[in-house]
C-alpha cells in the first residue's frame, strides 16, 4: 500500500476517534510532497499524534474517578418512635483530578439513609455535589448542629462556624496574630470541638517575627509569650519536619474561644516536644495530644511511624503529664464515646520506618495502659496480619466495647474489629467476607452510631461507598450493605492476586518460610496469537504495600494493552513484622530477587505474556529496585522508568531527611550521634544500583522532583551521567517545583505519557 493510501486510512481512523482534533490535520504533509522519505516521516508524525491522543484520553478516563477521603454522620433523627425508624445524614468528602485545569478538586456529598433499628431500608439520592474551595480543615460539632471550617483566602486564614442559617461566626486568625499558619497535614493537624461546643482546638506554627534592620524584635516563646530576637539571629537556621512538611517546625496547641472571639496558645508543652493530633480530655478540662521529640534534631516524619513520641495530658493550668511509655512511638489517639477509654498505636523507634504496630488501651479511670492488639510476627494465609496504618478518626462502637480499623492483609486491605475486653480480633469485611469478594480492598472511613461507611474498590473497579450496621461481630455474615455513591464501573480487564514462595537458594535463613505477594492485571480480548508486553510496577517505601484497589496508573496501562505486575516483595507491609525485618541489611539483593522471582513465576504461568517484552518501573525505593533489575539482569528487562530513585545510598546519606533509614536499610543500628565510617559507606555503596550502571543496557527514563527532600534529585543525575558517558539510552525529565511524590496533576499526566511512549518505543 502506498504512503498516501496509508495516510488516508489513518485520517479516516482519526476523524472517527478524535473529530475535535482533526481541524489542523485535514491537509496532510504527505499529500503535498512526492518524496517517499518525507511521506514516511509525515505518516510517523501523524501516528505519534494519534498515539499521544489515545494515551492522554485513557489516562484522563482513569484518573478522573472520584476518590472518597472522609465520611461522618452529622445527624440522626427519630422519625417513627413506634417502629424505631430513624433518618441518618452522612456527609462524605471526595477528591477528584481535573486534567483540564491540572488541579485536584474536592467536593462534598450528603446522603440520607432511612433505617429501621439497625437495618438500612433505603438510601435517598444525594443531589448535586458541592465544590469545596480553599478549605483546610472542617469538623462537625458533637451535636451535629454546627460545623467549623478553617479556610484560607487572600493570604488570610479564618475560622468559620456554619449553622442552619448560614455563617454564624468568623475569626480572622491572621489578623489576631497569635500564631503562624494552621497545620492541615496528617501528622500534626486536628480540629476538635470542646464538649460545650464553644471552643475549637487546633494546631498551628509557633509565631515567629523576622528581625528588622538595626533593631531587636519580639517572638512567641514556648508559653505563648514574647521573647526578644537580636539582629544577629535573623539568619539562624530553622529545622522543619522534612518532605511534605516543609516550613513546619514548631507546632503549638491553639484554642479559639468562639464566645470571646479570641485565640489562646496553650502554655505548658515542654520545649523539646512538638504537639499534634490533639483531642479534648473529658469534660473539656484539658487536652490530650501526641508529642514528637524534636531534640537533638528533627528527622523526616511523613510515612515514618518510627519517630520517638508519646501520649500527653495537658491541663488548663499548664501542667503536662506523659501517659504512655518512654522511648517508643505513639499515634492515632481515639477516645471512646463514654470518655472512659483511649486507644492509640505504639511502635518502636528507628529501624523500619513503617512497621507492624501495637494497639494500646488506656484506662482513663485507673490511669493504666495495656496491650489490646500485639505485633503480629507472621500470620497464617488470609488471616489478620497486624496493624500498619492510622486509625479512623471515629473507630469505636456505640457500646464502647469494640474498635474498628482497616489494615493490609497480604495483597488486600480489609476491615477488622477488636473486642476491648478480650482482645479478640475479627475480620469484619474484606476479601471473601460479607459478599464483598468482588472487591480487593475495603477501607473504613468512619463508624458512628454503629453505622459503618466504607470505601470499596478493586484494580478494575473505581471506588464506591457502602454503608451498613454491624450489631454483632459474631453475626458479621448477616450484615446488610448498601451502596451510597461512587463509580459503578467495571473496566475491561482481569486481575488476580498471587502468593509466591521463594526457592531455597533465595531464602532468608534468619527469617525462613516467608511468602510474598503480587497482583497481576491482564487486558481482555487480545488479538489472536498476540502476547501482551509486561510492565513490572514496584512500590516504594520499601515498607509499603500494593493493595488490590483502584490504581489509576496501573488501570490505564492495562487499558492500553500492557499487562501489569505489582509486587509486594518481602519487606512490604501486610505480611507480618518478620517480613519487614527480613529486609534490613538485605536491600539490593533480597528485594531484587523477589521482584525477579515474581516476574519469572508470572511468565511461567501466563502464556499470554511476552517474555521478550518486559519493562520495569517504580518510584523512590521502587525506582531503586527498577534500576537494580536492569543492572543485575541486563539481558532480561527491555526498558526502565524510575521516579526519584535511590541510586547511591552512600552519597544520599547527607542529603536525605530520613538519614536513619540510610543506616537501618543496610543493617546498621542508628543513633543521633552516629558518624559515617568507611565500612558503613562501603556497605551502602555495595547495595546501590550505581555499582551495576556499567552493565545497564536497557533504555532508562528518569523523572526527578527538584524540591525532593527525601531522595535528592542529584541521585537520579548521578545515574544519568553514568549512562550518558557509556552511550546507554537515557532521558531525564526535571520537575523543578515538585517534591518526592511527583503528585501534581499535570506532573502525573506528563510522567504517564512519557512512560508509555518510552515503553512503546523500546518494547516494540
Task: Tell me what you see in this structure.
By secondary structure, this protein is of the alpha+beta class. 18% of the residues lie in helices and 35% in strands. The protein contains 12 helices and 38 strands. It has an 8-stranded mixed sheet with strand order 31-32-34-33-35-36-37-38, with helices on both faces. Strands 1, 2, 3, 4 and 5 form a 5-stranded antiparallel sheet that branches. A hairpin with a 2-residue loop joins strand 8 and strand 9 (166-172). The two termini are 22 Å apart. 46% of the residues are buried. The model is unreliable at 22-31 and 222-228 (pLDDT under 50).
Radius of gyration over all CA atoms, rounded = 28 Å
- Mean of all residue-level pLDDT scores: 91
* Count of DSSP strands: 38
Helix/strand-derived class?
A: alpha+beta
Helix content: 10-25%
Largest sheet: spatial strand order: 31-32-34-33-35-36-37-38
Amino acid at each position: 500500500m502506498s504512503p498516501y493510501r496509508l495516510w488516508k486510512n489513518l485520517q479516516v481512523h482519526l476523524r472517527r476517534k478524535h473529530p475535535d482534533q482533526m481541524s489542523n490535520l485535514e491537509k496532510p504533509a504527505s499529500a503535498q510532497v512526492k518524496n517517499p522519505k518525507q511521506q514516511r516521516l509525515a505518516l510517523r508524525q501523524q501516528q505519534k499524534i494519534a498515539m499521544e491522543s489515545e494515551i492522554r484520553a485513557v489516562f484522563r478516563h482513569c484518573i478522573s474517578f472520584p476518590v472518597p477521603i472522609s465520611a461522618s454522620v452529622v445527624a440522626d433523627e427519630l422519625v417513627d418512635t413506634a417502629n424505631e425508624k430513624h433518618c441518618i445524614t452522612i456527609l462524605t468528602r471526595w477528591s477528584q483530578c481535573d486534567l483540564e485545569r491540572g488541579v485536584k478538586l474536592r467536593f462534598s456529598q450528603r446522603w440520607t439513609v432511612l433505617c429501621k433499628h439497625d437495618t438500612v431500608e433505603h438510601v435517598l439520592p444525594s443531589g448535586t455535589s458541592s465544590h469545596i474551595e480553599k478549605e483546610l480543615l472542617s469538623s462537625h460539632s458533637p451535636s451535629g448542629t454546627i460545623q467549623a471550617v478553617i479556610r484560607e483566602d487572600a493570604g488570610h486564614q479564618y475560622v468559620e462556624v456554619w449553622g442552619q442559617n448560614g455563617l454564624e461566626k468568623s475569626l480572622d486568625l491572621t489578623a489576631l496574630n497569635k500564631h503562624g499558619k494552621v497545620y492541615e497535614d496528617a501528622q500534626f493537624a486536628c480540629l476538635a470541638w470542646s464538649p460545650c461546643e464553644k471552643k475549637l482546638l487546633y494546631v498551628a506554627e509557633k509565631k515567629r517575627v523576622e528581625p528588622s534592620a538595626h533593631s531587636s524584635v519580639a517572638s512567641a516563646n514556648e508559653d505563648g509569650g514574647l521573647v526578644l530576637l537580636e539582629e544577629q539571629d535573623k539568619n539562624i537556621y530553622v529545622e522543619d519536619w522534612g518532605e511534605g512538611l516543609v516550613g513546619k517546625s514548631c507546632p503549638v496547641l491553639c484554642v479559639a474561644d468562639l464566645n470571646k472571639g479570641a485565640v489562646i496558645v496553650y502554655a505548658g508543652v515542654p520545649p523539646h516536644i512538638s504537639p499534634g493530633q490533639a483531642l479534648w480530655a473529658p469534660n473539656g478540662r484539658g487536652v490530650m495530644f501526641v508529642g514528637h521529640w524534636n531534640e537533638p534534631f528533627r528527622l523526616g516524619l511523613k510515612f515514618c511511624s518510627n519517630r520517638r513520641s508519646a501520649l500527653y495530658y495537658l491541663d488548663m493550668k499548664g501542667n503536662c503529664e506523659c501517659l504512655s511509655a518512654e522511648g517508643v512511638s505513639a499515634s492515632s489517639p481515639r477516645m471512646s464515646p463514654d470518655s472512659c477509654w483511649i486507644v492509640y498505636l505504639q511502635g518502636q523507634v528507628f529501624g523500619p520506618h513503617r512497621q507492624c504496630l501495637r494497639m494500646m488501651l488506656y484506662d482513663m479511670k485507673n490511669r493504666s495502659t495495656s496491650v489490646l492488639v500485639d505485633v503480629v510476627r507472621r500470620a497464617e494465609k488470609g488471616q489478620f496480619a497486624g496493624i500498619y496504618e492510622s486509625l479512623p478518626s471515629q473507630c469505636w462502637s456505640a457500646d464502647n466495647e469494640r474498635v474498628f480499623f482497616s489494615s493490609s492483609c497480604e495483597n488486600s486491605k480489609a476491615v477488622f474489629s477488636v473486642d476491648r475486653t478480650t482482645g479478640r480480633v475479627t475480620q469484619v469485611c474484606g476479601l471473601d467476607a460479607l459478599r464483598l469478594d468482588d472487591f480487593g480492598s475495603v477501607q473504613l472511613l468512619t463508624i458512628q452510631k454503629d453505622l459503618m461507611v466504607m470505601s470499596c474498590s478493586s484494580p478494575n473497579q473505581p471506588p464506591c461507598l457502602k454503608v451498613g450496621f454491624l450489631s454483632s461481630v459474631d453475626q458479621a455474615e448477616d450484615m446488610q450493605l448498601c451502596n451510597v455513591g461512587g463509580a459503578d464501573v467495571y473496566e475491561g480487564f482481569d486481575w488476580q492476586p498471587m502468593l509466591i514462595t521463594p526457592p531455597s537458594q533465595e531464602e532468608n535463613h534468619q527469617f525462613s518460610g516467608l511468602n510474598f505477594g503480587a497482583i497481576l492485571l491482564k487486558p481482555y480480548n487480545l488479538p489472536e496469537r498476540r502476547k501482551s508486553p509486561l510492565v513490572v510496577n514496584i512500590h516504594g517505601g520499601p515498607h509499603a504495600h500494593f493493595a488490590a484497589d483502584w490504581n489509576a496508573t496501573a488501570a490505564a496501562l492495562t487499558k492500553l494493552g500492557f499487562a501489569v505486575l505489582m509486587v509486594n516483595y518481602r519487606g512490604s507491609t501486610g505480611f507480618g513484622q518478620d517480613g519487614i525485618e527480613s529486609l534490613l541489611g538485605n536491600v539490593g539483593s533480597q528485594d531484587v530477587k523477589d521482584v525477579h522471582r515474581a516476574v519469572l513465576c508470572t511468565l511461567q504461568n501466563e502464556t499470554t505474556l511476552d517474555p521478550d517484552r518486559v519493562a520495569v518501573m517504580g518510584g523512590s525505593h521502587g525506582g531503586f529496585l527498577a534500576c537494580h533489575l536492569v543492572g543485575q539482569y541486563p539481558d532480561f528487562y527491555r526498558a526502565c522508568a524510575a521516579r526519584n530513585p535511590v541510586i547511591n545510598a552512600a552519597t544520599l546519606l547527607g542529603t536525605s531527611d530520613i538519614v536513619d533509614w540510610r543506616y537501618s536499610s543496610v543493617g546498621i543500628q542508628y543513633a543521633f550521634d552516629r558518624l559515617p565510617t568507611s565500612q558503613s559507606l562501603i556497605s551502602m555503596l555495595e547495595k546501590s544500583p550505581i555499582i551495576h550502571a556499567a552493565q545497564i543496557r536497557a533504555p532508562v527514563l528518569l523523572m526527578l522532583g527538584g524540591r525532593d527532600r527525601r531522595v535528592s534529585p542529584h541521585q537520579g543525575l548521578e545515574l544519568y551521567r553514568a549512562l550518558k558517558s557509556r552511550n546507554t539510552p537515557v532521558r531525564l525529565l526535571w520537575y523543578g517545583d515538585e517534591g518526592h511524590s511527583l503528585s501534581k496533576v499535570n506532573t502525573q499526566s506528563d510522567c504517564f505519557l512519557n512512560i508509555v511512549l518510552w515503553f512503546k518505543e523500546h518494547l516494540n
